Amino acid sequence: MSDFNSQIIDEFRTNNGRVTTAGFGSNLILVHTVGAKSGAPRVNPLLALPDDGAWLVIGSAGGSPKTPAWVHNIRAMSEVTVETPASDGITEHHASVSEVPDDEWDAVWQRFLDKSDGFRKYTETAEGRRFPIFRLTPTD
pTM for the whole thing? Predict the structure, then answer.
């Protein structure tokens, strides 16, 4: 795990889900996966948009032309564990995973663009890569 991700995860847990680093605020969740190749547990801090009781997360990797490793892991899983900010601390949920289908992708992508113009800038460095978007729906 990168030092940056470790810092973000520590700040998230220390401050009940609020992360001031890079201006994330209360817009992050921690997604727990298992390495598709290694079988090792992984935790990834991801910007999340609320979606009618679920969360939307995007595999933008800061505009990298490479898909982030967590995307490969999450595609191999039908369910993940998610830590989210709550009024009285952090809550943990089990959530089903579904990739946003092609016919919904443009509308959901627009929601990320509306959240931050940084996503538009990411398209300039991603060398044409279309970012995968996932819906994490609580099952508990």
Answer: 0.94
Query: Angle 16-60-11 (CA atoms, 0-180°, nearest 5)?
Result: 20
Summarised one tens digit per residue, pLDDT across range 57-70 is 999 999 999 999 99
Distances (CA, A) of 139 to 41, 44, 83, 96, 129: 20, 20, 13, 6, 31
Q: Is 2 helix (H, G, I), strand (E, B) or coil?
A: coil
Contact 68, 16 (CB under 8 A): no
DSSP letters, 74-130, are HHT-SEEEEEEEETTEEEEEEEEEEEPPHHHHHHHHHHHHHH-THHHHHHHHTTTPP
Q: What share of the chain is helix, strand, coil (3-state, %, to 5)?
A: 35, 35, 30
Q: Are 33 and 21 in contact (CB under 8 A)?
A: no
Structural contact between residues 51 and 134, judged by C-beta atoms closer than 8 angstroms: no
